[in-house]
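Batch job 17 of 40 flagged for manual review because the log was empty.
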Amino acid sequence: MGLYLGGYDHAARPEVMRALGIKAVVNAVGPRCTNLYRNSFAYFTCTPTPGGDTGKDTLDLGETCRLIDAALRAAAERIHGPPPAGGTPNVLVHCMSGVSRGPAAVIAFLMLRHGMGHEEATGHVIARHPATKVSRQLTQELAQFEAHLRSGAMPWA
C-alpha cells in the first residue's frame, strides 16, 4: 500500500484519486475542511490541537499515525474487483496546501512505523514531495516525537 501526499485541491479531484488507486483519505486539516466524496472514499479526519504561541492549530502526531494506520487498513478492505495499478490500494494524506501538516503527518508515520529518524523521514518526504515546508512548530513537535520514540515511550503504538 502506498501513501500519497497532497493538498485540498488533490482531495477535490475524485477522478485522479480513483486513477491512483486511492481508497482512503486522511484529512490533516481537521473538521473545518469538508470531506467531499464520502460515498467513494473512506475518510479519517485529524483533530487539531491548539498551537500555543503560534496561534495556529497543530497536529496530535500520535493520533495522526493511528489515523494513517486505520486508513491503510480501510483502503485494503475497500478493494472491490481487480486491484488498482501497482496492485495495492493507496491512501491520500492531505492538508490545505500540501506543504506542512500533511507532510508532517507522513514524516511522523515513517518515524513510527518504519523506524526512520526525523531527518531521514523528512529527507524521504522532501525527495518525493519537494513542495514540503513543515512549519517551525511542527518541526519541533516531530523532534519531540522522535525523542519519545527513541526513549522507548511509545504511547502512539
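Reviewer: the log was empty due to a logging misconfiguration, but the result itself is present. The radius of gyration is 15 Å. Unflagging and moving on to job 18.
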